[in-house]
Design a protein that fits this description.
The chain is of the alpha/beta class. The protein is about 55% helix and about 10% strand. The chain has helices at about 15-20, 30-35, 40, 50-55, 65-90, 110-120, 130-140, 160-180, 190, 200-210, and strands at about 1-5, 25-30, 95-100, 120-125, 185.
């Protein structure tokens, strides 16, 4: 079985991909692979290393646009390499693979997303509106790479955090439409949060959707 997990940062992609590893899946973590490509830029002059969120920063910072573009270019490279691997192993159905994508996978282009759907079952881990505020607070307190793609704007009287709070729901709504468009199956937040819901349940839900 070959799976790709898509959804907003904080939706549980890494959690479920690691759970799948425990069941014998090979994991491709796009965040880690992108960080490896950007490693020279993540290293400070004193030898310490920034994480990707620190490096990219917030959308109101002067260096953000350039780094957003650089990050996306690396993400496209990483997914191209993963797809090449999947193509080379297409006749080996016994190898279970999970691709832990980034929240910005939906910006990598129609060709890549079409191939991702071709070689894997794409699972969208949805989030309800009431979870968005928690994810925004997590982003503000510890920024992670977030591609805003011109959704962010700041009104003259707004603080930077007020602007983030206003624009974040717009970003989520715009992304949700794309996640749903490219996914083969959506697994509801509350369903996967139920007590006892595990990897077998997730795989059964994917298998059931394949018959619809």
């Amino acid at each position: 079985m070959r799976l790709s997990l898509i959804g907003m940062a904080g939706s549980g992609k890494s959690y479920w991909s690691m759970r799948l590893v425990e069941h014998g899946f090979r994991r491709f973590c796009c965040d880690d692979l992108i960080a490896a490509k950007l490693n020279p830029e993540l290293t400070r002059s004193d030898g310490t290393t920034m994480d990707l969120g620190q490096w990219m920063g917030f959308p109101y910072e002067p260096h953000y646009r350039e780094r957003e573009s650089e990050y996306l270019a690396c993400e496209i490279e990483v997914l191209t390499e993963i797809l090449e691997y999947l193509e080379s192993r297409k006749n080996n159905p016994e190898e279970n693979i999970v691709v832990d994508t980034t929240g910005s996978v939906i910006y990598t282009g129609e060709n890549i997303l079409r191939e991702l759907r071709r070689y894997t079952t794409v699972i969208y881990l949805s989030i309800p509106p009431e979870v968005r505020e928690r994810l925004l607070k997590a982003y503000i307190s510890r920024p992670h790479p977030m591609l805003w793609r011109n959704v962010f704007s700041k009104e003259p009287e707004e603080t930077e955090q007020e602007a983030l709070a206003r624009c974040y729901p717009r970003l989520v709504v715009a992304r949700e439409r794309l996640y749903k468009h490219y996914a083969h199956v959506t697994i509801d937040y509350y369903r996967r949060s139920e007590e006892g819901f595990g990897v077998r349940d997730l795989l059964n839900q994917v298998a059931s959707a394949a018959w619809l």
